[in-house]
Design a protein that fits this description.
four-stranded antiparallel beta sheet, alpha+beta, disordered N terminus, single chain, Rossmann fold, Endonuclease I-creI, 4 domains
Amino acid sequence: MSKSLDGVLTKKANQQETYTEKQIEQLVKCMDPDNGYLYFAKNFAYIQHPVRGKLLFEPYEYQERLMASYHNFRFNVNMLPRQTGKALALDTPIPTNSGWTTMGDIKVGDKILGPNGKEASVTFATPVMYNHTCYQVEFDNGEKITADAEHLWNITLRSWNTGVKTWTTQQIKDYIESKNTCVYVEAASPIQLDEIELPIDPYVLGFLLGDGESAAARYTQCVADNKEIVPEILSRGVDISRSYSNGTSVQSENRTIYGLRSKLNENDLLRNKHVPAKYLRASTNQRLELLQGLMDSAGSIDKRSGRCEFYQKNYRLIEQVQDLLSSLGIKNRCDHKVIKGQTYYTIGFATTKYKVFKLTRKSQYQDNCKSHQKNTRHYIKRISATDSVPVRCIQVDTTDHLFLCGKSMIPTHNTTCAAVYLAWFAMFHPDQTILIAAHKYTGAQEIMQRIRYIYELCPDHIRAGVVNYNKGSIEFENGSRVVSSTTTGNTGRGMSISLLYCLDGDTTRVRVRNKKTLEEEDVTLKELYVRLLDPRIVLA
C-alpha cells in the first residue's frame, strides 16, 4: 500500500500479488460482464451511514433495477433524486415551519421539517409517478400513511441488538406478518422555532379556548382552582374581574378577563373557537404555554397512570391541539364517542418531556407515567395493501435524509447505488473515461467522495491500482479514470467520454439533432426524458 498526496491509502499501480483460490474466485465474479456489478455491490461496496457508520451496501430491489438500467442500456435518463427511490401519496400531510403542505404540492427549495425539529430544504422532487405497489401504513395512534412498497423507514424493535434498521414498506410488512409483531419509529423532537409576537398571551388564549365562553372573554372555574389561575392570568399583564356567581354551584365562579373581547374579535375568535395558525408555529415555550392553558381549563389526568386527556366536541380545535402536541414531540391519540347524537372527542397522551399543567392538583400526578418508552414510539400496527395511487419522492438536505410526514409528524426516510456502479465500472473496464457532472461542484464531489470511500475499503485483490488520486479525479492502472466537474457549456469538451453520470436533469443541457431536418438545439435532460420516445430525435 502507498499513501497518496492527500493522505488516503491507495493500492500501488502495477504491483505483483499472489492470490488465494478464494480471492481469484471473488475477482472472477466481479469481472463477470453480465452480473459482476451486483456481486461487487453486495460483497465489497461499503457506504457510510450517518448513525451506524460503515455498512456493507445492501441494495433494495429498486436499486438493483436502477443499476441494471445503468448496465444494460447505452443511454439512460433516470428521473429520480439521489437518496430516494421511495414515494408517498400526494395527499400525505407534510409539516413546515409556517403550517402544512402536502407531498403533491412540495417544490424544490421549499422548507420542511426534519426529526430533529429543524428546517430541511427540499433539494429534489420527482414528477408524479403512477402504477406503484402501494400500502397503507397504520400506526398505534391511529395515523395512516399511504406509501409505496419501496419507501424507506427508520425502524427498530427492542429485541434487536443492531438498533435502527432502514427497511422498505414491503420489508416491514413481510416482517410483521411473519413474526406476528410490530416495529416502531421514534417520535420526532420538538419543532425549533423563534419566539414571535402574539396578539393574546398564549396561556390566556389556551385557557379561554379550553373552557371559556365562546362569545366573550369570560370563563367558569371552580373556586379552589381559581386561587392559582387568577394570579397566573394576572401575571400575563391583563386584568381580571372579581368573581361572581354563575347561579349553578357555590363551588364554581365566573370571571371576566378585561380588554380581551376586542382582540378576540380582531382574530376571528368570537363564536369561533380555534387556535390561530401563528400560535401553532410559535416558539417551543409559547406553544407549551398555550398547551398549559388548554390543559388547565379543559384537561384532566389519571392520578395512577399519569395519562393526560383533553376533551372537546369541537373537532377543529381537537385537530389543532393534536398538531400542537405533535409539534412539541408528544405522541397522542384521538378517540371519540357519540352521546345523544353528539360526537365528543378525547385526545390522550402521556409525557414527562414537559409539565403540561400549571395547576398543582393536576401536575403533581404527571410523572406517574414513568417515562414509559411507548410514549415516545410510533408503533406500526399493520400494513395493508391498497389501491395504487399517484406518488412522489423528495430529497432533503439533512444528513440522515429524514423528514416529517403525517399529522403525527412521523419521521420518514428520504441511499447510494450510482457511486457503487461507477466504482465497479472504472475498476473492471479498461481505458474508460467516466465524467460526473453536476450543477454545483459540491454535488459532483459528493458522488466522487463516495466512490473514494468505496475504493478505499475494498480489499487489494479486488480493487485496481491507482496512478493518480485526488479530490477531483481518480486514474487507475487499467487506463480508466473518473473525473468530476460542474455542468457548463464546455463540460466534457475534448474528452472521449465512455460514461456520463449527471445529477441535475433540470439544469444540465445536451445538444440533440433532428434526424430528418438536421436542426440542432440544446435541451435539458428533463426535456430530453420527455422526448426520448420520439424516433426523430438523436443525440448530436
